[in-house]
Design a protein that fits this description.
Blueprint (H helix, E strand, L loop, with lengths): L1 H7 L3 H9 L7 E2 H11 L12 E4 L6 E2 L1 E5 L4 H9 L4 E4 L16 H11 L3 E4 L2 H5 L4 H6 L5 E4 L2 E4 L9 E7 L2 H12 L4 E10 L2 E10 L1 H11 L3 H5 L2 E4 L4 E7 L1 E10 H12 L5 E3 L9 E11 L1 H4 L6 E6 L2 H9 L3 E4 L9 H12 L5 E4 L11
Parallel strand pairs: 4-5, 4-19, 5-6, 16-17, 17-18
Antiparallel strand pairs: 1-3, 2-6, 7-14, 8-13, 9-11, 9-12, 10-11, 14-16, 15-18
């Protein structure tokens, strides 16, 4: 590319001028980078059992010039990251999952932590936060199916309620002289917000009290109302659900615009994942020519996410033997590609998305040594 620019530039002076003004990467403070990554895909999307976020932090201050992307952080990948002068490793799978009781040179995961700290490299893992994100791993996996519409199999809920509190309590006060006293009392309880409006019950003008409160405040509110039989009998208590998030959640249920044969779908998946082989379990009564219209997919290990989904095909990295048997008995075809083969290809898309999101402020490179530990021999 440089040689073509040289041929187009008539003088060395202009060549130097163009190089001086070419875009260059700078750096980001670690805290600023973490905030930007959370804006890209909130860690609140992650499953409760997962271990996501910053896993290894060098002593502050820490600046990041080079962000290194990998699906799995092995010792071989760590060596590559250090050779490429990475300051920050984004490992899709968390290299630290179970609690560590010591950090020594004895086990490979402990050695990863030692080397990261010695070389001042931060380690971060998004894992299931990127599974659930609208632009995440499962959406990327669905791209290989063909033109389709998709929705999460298990939608994510917003991290917070849209309003105050977790519960709403409503009741009527019939006597006007009691309204101010009741409102004053409930407002004296912590974590309670109160509104009131006119209501007509059985032809009688009354005041409807509506309050939002926390779980802890609900106990005190109910205790107060139970002291007044008339108020308590007219009380309604609603549990406020966190709203579902659009296009966010675990797995994807994909409906193709046009159905294709199972054989065609297999070739599409192999091409998308750059695989020469996949594992196939034919559903009872199905053949390679059977039509596929609906695909339920989950990157990685999909047994719990896909279970019960109504589809012609389940696509995932791995499933337990008995879950494969259950799906096949229902006439559902199953394609298994090995765990990380359904995830790793996302990294090239992620690199481009993060570069744009971070406004090219840091250098982002993808591991060349990261690979699935299993191979067909």
């Amino acid at each position: 590319m440089l040689s073509s620019r040289v041929r187009l530039v008539p003088t060395p002076v202009r060549l130097v001028h163009s190089l001086i003004h070419s875009p260059s990467h700078s750096f980001m403070d670690l805290k600023t980078l973490l905030s930007s990554l959370n804006d890209f895909a909130s860690l609140s999307f992650a499953e409760s059992w997962d271990n996501v976020g910053l896993l290894v932090e060098p002593s502050p201050p820490h600046t990041v010039n080079t962000l290194f992307l990998t699906n799995d952080l092995t010792e071989e990948v760590m060596e590559e990251a250090l050779q490429k002068k990475a300051d920050f490793i984004l490992s899709y799978h968390p290299p630290i999952f179970q609690p560590m009781k010591r950090v020594t040179w004895k086990t490979w995961k402990e050695r990863l932590v030692v080397r990261a700290l010695e070389n001042r490299v931060a380690v971060y893992s998004p894992h299931t936060a990127y599974d659930a994100a609208p632009q995440g791993v499962n959406s990327w996996l669905a791209k290989g199916l063909g033109i389709c519409t998709s929705r999460p199999i298990h939608p994510s809920k917003a991290p917070n309620h849209p309003g105050e509190g977790t519960h709403r309590v409503e009741f009527n006060v019939s006597r006007t002289q009691d309204v101010d006293k009741v409102i004053s009392t409930v407002r004296g309880i912590s974590d309670v917000s109160v509104t009131s409006f006119s209501a007509r019950t059985n032809g009688e003008e009354q005041t409807r009290i509506s309050l939002n409160c926390s779980q802890q405040a609900l106990i005190q509110v109910v205790a107060f109302l139970s002291q007044n039989r008339q108020l308590y009998q007219k009380t309604e208590i609603l549990s406020l659900e966190k709203p579902l998030l659009l296009n966010t959640g675990m797995g994807r249920l994909c409906t193709l615009d046009e159905s294709v044969s199972l054989a065609t779908m297999i070739e599409r998946i192999k091409r998308h994942l750059k695989l020469s082989h996949v594992r196939l379990a034919l559903g009872v009564g199905r053949t390679l020519e059977s039509p596929v219209k609906v695909v339920a997919l989950c990157a990685g290990s999909g047994s719990s996410v896909l279970q019960g989904a109504e589809a012609d095909l389940y696509l995932t990295g791995e499933m337990s033997h008995h879950n494969v048997l259950d799906a096949a008995s229902q006439g559902i075809n199953v394609i298994l590609c090995e765990h990380s083969n359904t995830e790793r290809g996302f990294l090239s898309d992620l690199r481009d998305m993060l570069s744009a999101h971070l406004e090219n402020k840091i250098n982002i490179i993808q591991s060349e040594t990261d690979r699935d530990p299993l191979q067909v021999v």
